[in-house]
Amino acid sequence: MQKPTYNNADLEVRSLDTMCVNESALEHRWYHNLKYLTVGVFFGIVFIKAEVISWFRIQEMFRLQSFHMYGIIGSAILVAMASIFLIKKFRAKTIYGEEIVFHDKKFNKGQIYGGLIFGLGWALTGACPGPLFAQIGTGATAVAVTLLSAIAGTWIYGYFREKLPH
């Protein structure tokens, strides 16, 4: 298979488009990741209690019948904005002393296509990728089809990534 060729601007964008830009260089034992499992379970419970994973709430949002989901998403955006502002202002570091770096991303038309596909999938299935596991955990096993579809979509994107516009 022949390697694709890129111009310098393409390489510059690709360097910021890579996965794990801020990945830690520290090595930890396997049980170090249990904290993420704990936070994930807690977060899943919060999602369930706040009805964030409710198919009915998501359908209400897309039909513009309720402010519930818009309020949750809006408050999450405000918390993220404030957090990023504070991290930048005080030059906060990770708990291991590593620098936190934010990279600017340039807008491109692929973001519009991706957002439309993501939103369409969200509206059709009543689930975005985050709460899929919580939905399955509540006994909505039919959501496993959505999870497998999300995994397949991610794999397809990874396979065709070099040929797609970025």
Question: Can you put this structure into words, describing what you see?
Answer:
This protein is mostly helical and 166 residues long. The chain is 58% helix and 0% strand. The protein contains seven helices and no strands. InterPro entries: Sulf_transp_TsuA/YedE (IPR007272). Pfam families: Sulf_transp.
Low-confidence stretches: none
Task: Characterize the overall form.
Answer: globular
List the secondary-structure elements in sequence, H or E.
HHHHHHH
Number of strands: 0
Largest sheet: none
Q: Characteristics of this structure?
A:
single chain; 166 residues; mainly alpha; globular; transmembrane; membrane; transmembrane helix
Topology (SSEs and partners):
Elements: H1 8-16, H2 34-49, H3 55-62, H4 68-90, H5 109-125, H6 132-137, H7 143-160
Short description:
With 166 residues, the protein is mainly α. The chain has helices at 8-16, 34-49, 55-62, 68-90, 109-125, 132-137, 143-160.
